[in-house]
Amino acid sequence: MYSLLNFRGHTDGRGVLFSLEEEKNIPFQIKRVYYLTDLQPNHPRGFHAHKNLEQVAICVSGSCVFTLDNGLSRISVELNSPGQGLHIKGLIWREMKDFSNGCVIMVLANEYYDESDYIRDYSEFKRLSAG
Ligand code: TYD
Q: Is the C-beta atom of 113 inside 6 A of ligand 1?
């Protein structure tokens, strides 16, 4: 349903630097980067699937929980390290919750924003995933 990517941090006395490169440690061509800030622990987000989109989500600061659903089962994954990327592709319903103070989520995607690629209705998602 997902895979976890591990990014090597370049650590020295000044801090840690992570580098993301398309078709190297990111497994696709990157057309879009967006990030979410000022997230509220009591305001979960997402609640959609994509017809055709590949993404890597990185919690670059703080922590959060992604719940993923392939229509048959549901799994929750905590992201709490800037060195970890959650790779999602295929027809997967996603929800994001339990944002820590200062949580920032950065998402890399292989397509431009396209509202027609979204499935925002869970029963439509269930219908599509069944068949
Ligand atoms: P939305 O998909 O509802 O966010 P989430 O899945 O985190 O709950 O997106 C919020 C708003 O931002 C919505 O008006 C669409 C817009 N948006 C863009 O304009 N470009 C983008 O790349 C994304 C992901 C969203």
A: yes
